[in-house]
Each structure stands twice: as C-alpha cells, then as structure tokens.
Write a structure and sequence with these properties.
Elements: E1 5-14, E2 17-27, E3 32-36, H1 43-50, E4 58-63, E5 66-68, H2 73-79, E6 81-84, H3 96-100, H4 116-129, H5 145-157, E7 163-167, H6 175-190, E8 194-198, H7 202-208, E9 211-216, E10 219-225, H8 231-239, E11 258-267, E12 271-279, E13 283-287, H9 294-302, E14 309-314, E15 317-319, H10 324-329, E16 332-335, H11 339-343, H12 350-355, E17 363-364, E18 368-369, H13 371-384, H14 401-415, E19 419-423, H15 431-446, E20 450-454, H16 458-464, E21 467-472, E22 475-481, H17 487-494
Parallel strand pairs: 3-8, 3-9, 6-7, 7-8, 13-20, 13-21, 16-19, 19-20
Antiparallel strand pairs: 1-2, 1-4, 4-5, 9-10, 11-12, 11-14, 14-15, 17-18, 21-22
C-alpha cells in the first residue's frame, strides 16, 4: 500500500531559530499515527507545514506519491488535509455553525445570500454524528473550552478530509467526550481516513494509535509500532534522558496557618454555597467532572467573576475582592486554563510577559521603565524554569505551548504571591515539562506557598494533592486526605448529585 503522505528531510526555521531539521514522516491510509515528543520537539510545526500554515524552507512533501507544494491552508484543504490546532482558533462573536462553515457558507437559490437554515442543518448533522448536544446558533464565546474544542473538531470533520491532523484534541475533554472522539476516529479509520494524533497522554495513545513517530529537538528519532513498544522506551526516545519522579510525601499541614478561606460562595447555578480553607504550605486539589464548577469557583474567589453571595478571608481578615487587581493586591495569583487568551500577551516578548503583573517595581523615578532590571528578571526565570527560548527578547507566540505555560508561572513567581491557583497547569505539556512543573510546585509548597490545583487528570490530582476537594454541579461534595484519595472515591463524590455535607 502506498503512503498517503511522505515527508522527507523537511527543514523550517523561525527568526533564525531552527524548529525542524531533516524531519521525516510517513502516513498510511486508514491508520492512526501518533506523533510524540517534548514541547519544542517540532511536532506541531511539522504538521502545520503539512496543513499549509507554514511554508517549508527545504525538503519535500509527497501526497499520494506526488510532490506537492502546500502554500496555504486552503491548498491543504483542497488536497483533503484538515487540522485541529492545539490552541483554539475560533471567532467568539460568531455562532458554532458560522465558525464551522466560515468562508464556504451555503448560498440560497439566487446565490446572493447565505442559507442560514441549510448551514445550521448541516452543522446539526455533524453534531449528531459526534453525539454532541449543542445548538448550532450558540455564539462560540459563550461556550466552555471543552465545547469550543468540540466545535474545532466538528469544523475539521465538515471537510471530506482524507488526512485529519489532531493536535492535543482531548486537552479540554472529559472521559465521556474522549470516548466519543475515539468512536469518531474509529469510524474515520474504517472509511480509510488517515489520522495524525499528537498527544502527551500515554494512555490515550495506547488506545487509539497504530504507529508512533518520535521527534526530539526538531529531528526525527524513530517510528515504531505502538502496541509493541513499552512506554518507558518511548519516553526515553522523547526526552533523551531519564526522568526523576517526584515523590508525594503528603506532609501534615493540618496545623498550618489558614491563608485563604472562602465561605458560602455563590455565582449563578455554577457555584452554589461553596466553602473551603487553604493552608500555608499545602497543595489543595480541586477534582470533578467537566462543568462541576471548579474553574468558576476559582475565578469567583480571584475576582474575575462577580459573586452573588459569600465571603473571602485572607489570613483571617475579611477582604473585598471585586477584580483580579484586588486579588493580586492581597497576594493571590491565578494561572488560567486558557493561557493564550487570559495568561499571555503573545505579541510581546518573554521578559515583558514575565514583568507585566510587576511593572510598578520596575519603574525608575516613578515614571521610567528600568529595562535592564526587566531583562535580568526574565533571564533569572528563564534559567530557573528551563524555558526554551533563544533569548528573553523572543516573542512568546513563537514558543511552544509548554514554554508558554512556564512563562505564565514565572510572572506569578516574580510577583511573589502567597496563594496560587493553577487551573489545568500541565494542559498540553509533555512528560518532561510535567515532571519539572510538579517538582516546582512541591518546592513552592515547601517554601510556604499555598497552592490550589484544578485538574481534569485524576492521576495528577492524586499525585500532587495534600487534600482533595471534589465538586459536583457547583457544590463541594466532599474532602479526601491525599493519603486516602483514590480515583474510585473521587469519582463517587464527583457523580453524587446530592452532597451529604459541604466541606469546609
């Protein structure tokens, strides 16, 4: 059988930084081919060249055995190549249907006006195929990150694609939604569609992939059968080193000072009478299914969303937090799950992003910015967090997702907040970077920082948390000590519609 896609000796650089060097890849019809590597390994760049987002500097791409020059996304779509990007690429003011068919809307009889009814009907057909309960008329800006991701998938499925590239497609999906996605992938595979699947979630790859290609530092390492290759071997190929596991020692923090307390927080139907305490030096995990209200509770405490009722205390003193600025003034930092829109100014450079929440400290004579001090702070955190960038002057948009996440962490470390909310801290981050962030969080807790982790990955919650609070339908359904928490206990509380006792 002839490969549908063959990539040979592909090279690509950005602003003098080499992203790909003699990269190789081969994709067969009807296979699911995983692409693995650390952040910055070149996976997304390679696929963006195939999808026409980037132009290659050198090398060749064959489609059905014939050389092709894919000059644009439209050219890729004409060949039958669709891509679901890791970072959401939707227009929030348009409806789901308008996003899916933008630029190719069905026209009415006279060919002058868009046939909105036909567009909604076709969108609904795709949603039905995905078992997705969503009104095609809903503005994308009103959807959760998970639902927005599903709209991206529907958009890709709306093309009769022969090749479908999925870059971290399950990053914001719950288990049920992941199962629906895998069902769709199985259908596409049976129809002969070839799927490129980029993910850092090892259990997913074992379930869905036939073969895996490993990349490191922009270069091809190997292609191996997924079912015959141990995960340890894949990780060794990815990182080129042995990873040191972080031990969860579960220190006793019960007697530590309470640095943050929330009492009876309410916000619409998403947060209902939620109360919790956070102590100095502990990592508190927030678990629950998608839509349980974890992010909404954190945003309410941080002042990003106005609460309907409730009180917040910082070190025993009642405070009024009506905005993120108020929260930061009280020593509370928040790392959003959507770093692209709420955590970074991607058009600015690394050092400026790190300095943004701390600009007052970099003012000289009250009016002039001390650029040298900003640069020194940037250099310090680039080194401390091992951020891969050619310099602190590099634009953040040119860095990998994992390195962007580290920059968000760096800016709050520079601010020296005593309380830190981490919302999906390792979303889209590879195993090597995850180990570094886990180690960093333990170090911060040991230094006395109080940390809240919101994560959809139960192994991450179990590995990191000294205590676990479980939410369901806006309520805190229960609390589990880290030593006693299991996936079964968490899921029991996460699906229990009526809470016996609200945790405090």
């Amino acid at each position: 059988m002839q490969p549908i896609v063959t990539i040979r000796d592909l090279c690509k650089s950005f602003a003098g930084v080499r992203a790909l060097h003699n990269a190789q890849f081969e994709l067969m019809p009807g296979e699911v081919h995983a692409l693995m590597g650390e952040n910055g390994a070149g996976k997304s760049t390679l696929m963006k060249v195939l999808a026409g987002v980037y132009r290659k500097d050198a090398g060749e791409v064959l489609f059905d055995g014939q050389p092709v020059d894919i000059a644009s996304p439209r050219a890729a779509q004409a060949l039958g190549i669709g891509i679901i990007h890791q970072e959401l690429n939707l227009m929030n003011h348009l409806s789901a249907a308008q996003n899916i068919f933008i630029g190719r809307e069905p026209l009415g009889v006279l060919g002058l006006f868009i046939d909105e009814e036909a567009m909604r009907a076709e969108t609904q057909r795709i949603f039905d195929r995905m078992n997705l309960r969503l009104d095609p008329r809903t503005p994308v800006g009103e959807l959760t990150v998970a639902k927005q991701q599903m709209v991206e998938i529907a958009k890709a499925l709306s093309f009769d694609s022969r090749v479908l590239i999925m870059d971290e497609p399950t990053a914001a999906l719950n288990n049920e939604e992941v199962s629906d996605l895998f069902r769709i992938i199985g259908q596409l595979k049976a129809q002969g569609v070839a799927v490129v699947y980029i993910s850092h979630k090892m259990d997913e790859l074992k379930r869905v992939a036939d073969r895996v290609t490993v990349m490191r530092d922009g270069q091809y390492i190997a292609t191996v059968p997924m079912d015959q290759t141990p995960m340890g071997s894949l990780i060794a190929m990815m990182v080129g080193r042995q990873l040191t596991e972080v031990e969860n020692e579960f220190p006793d923090t019960a007697g530590n000072e309470v640095v943050l307390e929330a009492r009876g927080i309410c916000r619409g139907a998403m947060v209902r009478n939620a109360s919790f305490v956070l102590r100095r030096g502990e990592i508190l995990g927030f678990a629950g299914l998608m839509g349980a209200g974890r992010t909404e509770l954190a945003r309410a405490v941080f002042g990003a969303d106005r609460i309907d009722a409730g009180e917040v205390f910082v070190r025993g003193r009642k405070v009024s937090i009506r905005s993120p600025e108020d929260a930061v003034a009280h020593g509370i930092g928040y790392l959003s799950e959507d770093r692209k829109h709420f955590g970074l100014a991607t058009g600015l450079d690394v050092e400026t992003n790190i300095a943004l929440p701390n600009m007052k400290r970099f003012l000289s004579m009250g009016a002039f910015i001390d650029q040298a001090a900003i640069g020194a702070a940037g250099e310090r955190y680039v080194k401390q967090l091992r951020i891969k960038t050619p310099s602190v002057h590099q634009q953040v948009r040119l860095l990998s997702g994992g390195n962007q996440q580290k920059i968000v962490i760096a800016k709050w470390l520079l601010r020296d907040c005593g309380v830190l909310f981490f919302d999906e801290p390792t979303r889209g981050i590879d195993v090597g970077a995850k180990a570094e962030i886990y180690r960093l969080l333990h170090e911060l807790a040991a230094q006395g920082k109080a940390i809240v982790i919101i994560s959809s990955e139960l192994p991450e919650i179990l590995r990191m948390s000294h205590r676990v609070l479980v939410m369901c339908e806006g309520r805190i359904n229960g609390e589990l000590p880290g030593r006693e928490a299991t996936q079964e206990k968490i899921m029991q509380l996460a699906t229990q519609r009526e809470a016996p006792v609200a945790a405090a």
